[in-house]
Fold this sequence. Notes:
Elements: E1 3-5, H1 12-31, E2 40-41, E3 46-49, E4 56-60, E5 68-70, E6 77-83, E7 86-89, E8 92-97, E9 109-115, E10 124-130, E11 137-138, E12 145-146, E13 148-155, E14 163-168, E15 172-181, E16 184-195, H2 201-204, E17 211-216, E18 219-220, E19 243-248, E20 253-254, E21 257-258, E22 267-273, E23 280-286, H3 289-297
Amino acid sequence: MKRFAIRARANRAAAFLALFLLVFEAEHARACSCDYPDLGFLAAPSIEVPANAQGLLWAGVLRTAGGLIELPPVNQFRVEQFAAGEWVSVGAKINLFRDHRGSSDSFYDILLVGPETGFRPGTRFRFEYAAREGRSLLRMGTTEYMSSQTIEVLVSEEEFRGSHITHVAAERERGTLRVAATGCHEEVEASWVTVDELVPASVMRWQDSLFFSVMVGDRYWHPRRDLCQSLPPGRSWAGLGQCRFYWIEEEVRYSGIQLGLDGGDSGAVVYAWLPGTSEWVTTTNHLDLERIREQRSK
């Protein structure tokens, strides 16, 4: 059993704000009778990963009341490689994962779980996880609770390489939108832009291996439908590989922070990062807020 102290990576003001957000969210989550189950591996049951992948992402609630992170026992993870016609245990390597931007507003912590032997092109692996005692395990995006989880992995001959892409977001809409706010959620009149492809299809091929971060200016963009939505860092309320940016008619404040875009926001940068490497794709999305404002006034 290992414990890692959570050390602030920002200045004291940012650290105090992060602590306030956690306390505030916890109080309202209890009021809303929220449950934050472990989510396990953030991957489909059978996937292909790039040759330079380091492992699979796993999400769960690991923070203790004392502000430490307690990793699950390594024996709850099993990693096997298919060799000579049978599955052979190769041992699991577990590391605490941090977004390279150092940003998170979630109760969830992320682990990077890989084989001790590493991946080699053309090989097959099987990852298994058994739910921790006293913790529920929910398949993300479903209502299915599990006692264990199995992911089969094929390692591609192709590697993931970084690049930069720029495009203008479209699909502007206006209506009623449900957003997380004080008291769990609020229905607000809003205009929004939906980006259906944060990164190209060639990158989304590796979606189960990637960690996504969205920044609007210097803000980490990670909205939820309500405080109870089980949404770990790196995943979007609009769907994997998608995002919705909105501008509200009236200020809705959650923990004293306005959720919608403001007049100074004109673009969003998306990072699709292959964890454990220095490879990521960045996409700059020009949101064209002037046209959103024109639509809002009609």
